[in-house]
Every structure is written in structure tokens, then in C-alpha cells.
Specification:
The complex is a heterodimer of chains A (112) and B (116).
Chain A: E1 4-7, E2 10-14, E3 19-25, E4 31-37, E5 44-49, E6 55-58, E7 61-65, E8 71-76, E9 85-92, E10 101-102, E11 106-111
Chain B: E1 4-7, E2 10-13, E3 19-25, E4 31-37, E5 43-51, E6 54-57, E7 64-66, E8 76-78, E9 87-94, E10 106-107, E11 111-115
Parallel strand pairs in B: 2-11
Antiparallel strand pairs in B: 1-3, 3-8, 4-5, 4-9, 5-6, 7-8, 9-10, 9-11
The chains are: A mainly beta (112), B mainly beta (116).
Chain lengths: 112, 116
């Protein structure tokens, strides 16, 4: 079945450093979504990427979708303590109508 | 709007007991799903529904049953609880993406289940 791998599993950074998490799928995706889960909370939608090579920005967050639509990345510039949490990618295959396969997540810890 | 609500927030069961986790949404979403979250394993899909009266299995359906009699409610039943079902359970809903790519999913606050 479809697999979505995410690396790294954990990342400690000093406040102000940059952070990147990578997502790789074993199959071509129709689209990819990113979610953030604060400690003790529930996943919250951040963004969706649909087009090959697409790049979207949200303030200090930059999201990319690979040309082959099999990988994606989330980059945070100058991390802040409010960025702490686990970031998940979730991919959909063949417009399957909402069935998302989630990556294992990257837990980001920021030292002030 | 309350969004997606789940009850209970915490539950402790003994092996072999049964229970139902409740999920409700007030956004008129067609699609609802149940995930379990275990450390380091992300969110794994248990069951999902694309509308009232329609359910299907996800990645890890064994030991769980669902039904969808109304658009709003999507309960998850544990038939005979086992320690391997200790996890955090999230319900999610969205508009249906059938025929196009999916919409964003809205998650409930979760139920922390411990089976001893």
C-alpha cells in the first residue's frame, strides 16, 4: 500500500535557527496537505499543495511540492518558541476522495 | 459552530470490555473518519465514511466497528478492548472530495484510551 515517510522524526533547534522537514511518498500524489499538532492538542490544517513544483509561503513557513509529486518539504525560517509541535504531511493518491495517508510526523522542539 | 466534538476525553478500560467513542460535527461535512495516533507512527486511518449509510475500512480496521446513520454522527465501537488498542483516537471531518482532490480535514480534540 501507499507509504508516506517523513524525516527527521525529531529536531531540536535553538530559537532563531531554521528548520526543515521532508516528506516522501512511495507513489505519486494528487495533492499533499500539511498539519501542525501542538503538544497535547489535535492536528490543525496548515496548507494544501496540488500542482507539480508548487511553492507556497505563510509568513516564515515555506511549503514545496516536488516536480514528480512524490515529495514535499516544509521550511521554517528563524524558528520561534510558538513553532513547537509536531508537523505532519498527508498525501492523497488519485483523487481518492479524502483518503489521506499521514507521515509519521516531525516533532520540533525549540530552545529559547 | 462547535466544529468536531468527541466524548469522552479520557477512558480506561479493562481487557475484554467494549465501549463506544462518540464523534459529532455540525459543519454538514459528508466525509468523516477515525484515526489512531501512536508515538512515532503518525495518524493511521481506522474507518471512514463518505456519507450517511456508507462506511469503509481504512488501514487498521481490526477490532473496531463504525456506523453512520446521520450526517452529523460517526461513533467508533471497540468490541472487545485489548492493550494494543491503547492510543489516542481522533475523529475528523471534511467536505467530500470525490472526483476532485480532498478538502482540509477538521479534527476533534481526541480521546485518550488506556486498556489494562
Amino acid at each position: 500500500g501507499q507509504q508516506v515517510m517523513q524525516i527527521p522524526q525529531y529536531q531540536h533547534v535553538q530559537e532563531g535557527e531554521d528548520f526543515t522537514t521532508y516528506c516522501n511518498s512511495s507513489t505519486t500524489l494528487s495533492n499533499i496537505q500539511w498539519y501542525k499538532q501542538r503538544p497535547g492538542g489535535h492536528p490543525v490544517f496548515l496548507i494544501q499543495l496540488v500542482k507539480s513544483g508548487e511553492v507556497k509561503k505563510q509568513k516564515r513557513l515555506t511549503f514545496q511540492f516536488g516536480e514528480a509529486k512524490k515529495n514535499s518539504s516544509l521550511h521554517i525560517t528563524a524558528t520561534q518558541t510558538t513553532d513547537v509541535g509536531t508537523y505532519f504531511c498527508a498525501g492523497e493518491v488519485n483523487n481518492a476522495g479524502n483518503m489521506l495517508t499521514f507521515g509519521g510526523g516531525t516533532r520540533l522542539m525549540v530552545k529559547p | 459552530n462547535a466544529g468536531v466534538t468527541q466524548t469522552p476525553k479520557f477512558q480506561v478500560l479493562k481487557t475484554g470490555q467494549s465501549m463506544t467513542l462518540q464523534c459529532a460535527q455540525d459543519m454538514n461535512h459528508e466525509y468523516m473518519s477515525w484515526y489512531r495516533q501512536d508515538p512515532g507512527m503518525g495518524l493511521r486511518l481506522i474507518h471512514y465514511s463518505v456519507g450517511a449509510g456508507i462506511t469503509d475500512q481504512g488501514e487498521v480496521p481490526n477490532g473496531y466497528n463504525v456506523s453512520r446513520s446521520t450526517t452529523e454522527d460517526f461513533p467508533l465501537r471497540l468490541l472487545s478492548a485489548a492493550p494494543s488498542q491503547t492510543s489516542v483516537y481522533f475523529c475528523a471531518s471534511s467536505y467530500s472530495g470525490t472526483g476532485r482532490y480532498s478538502y482540509e480535514q477538521y479534527f476533534g480534540p481526541g480521546t485518550r484510551l488506556t486498556v489494562t
